[in-house]
Write a structure and sequence with these properties.
The protein has ten helices and eight strands. The protein is an alpha/beta fold. The strands form two sheets. Strands 5-4-1-6-7-8 form a six-stranded parallel β-sheet, with helices on both faces.
Amino acid sequence: MTKDLRDIDAIAFDLDGTLVDSAPDIRAALNAALKEAGFARFDLDTVRTWIGDGPDALILQALRQQGVAADEALRAQLRRAFDAATLAAPLQFGGVFEGVAELVDGLRRSLPMVVVTNKPTPLARAVLDAAGLLQPMAGVYGADAAAQRKPAPFLLQAAAHRLGVEPARLLMVGDGPADLLAAHAAGCPAALVAWGYGGHAAAAGAPPAWRVATPQQLLLTVRESRGVRGDEETTTTNRVF
């Protein structure tokens, strides 16, 4: 399927599993928090399946897996340790997905970009900065409260409002069902990437979306739809906040 992007004025990217392969770092932060509290730790394949709903949901899943009653004080303790570990090493073990740096560099010449993620904003900004992807973004919209988390439309609506575009002209690019459901709820078109953590699961219950096989495909489709040459140097002015 080829997507016509002439009616798109901006792009919102999910973070974990879409821009960055951060699962190894999320696992390290989770295990550091669990070890500090005296709980069992988990392997990468297990943690990867839990990524997408933010650290609070991740911690709750880890506790439930061990049959531990997740009282508020314990969850808060683990969350503080998780945040500290993440900020100390935002992207030590993972990295930017292949082709994403070129995608972001190419798109910044055509469209404003934001990040819309269930990772809290301070953690998201730290990861983006470590990945070298913070500066090109016009905004970072993290889920700083449970009610803001995708699949709720709040973050996409806030991004569209701040960018001054209609939600129908903001493309949500993500790797899982929460991204597609949030886009549907907000009235945004959506693209599902094949290289992330939740793309296959999305097919079961999420709304239809444009399937993107590689970052290069997305970049080329944007250029073709908008008549942008590969060597065009016109840039979009973005402001990070």
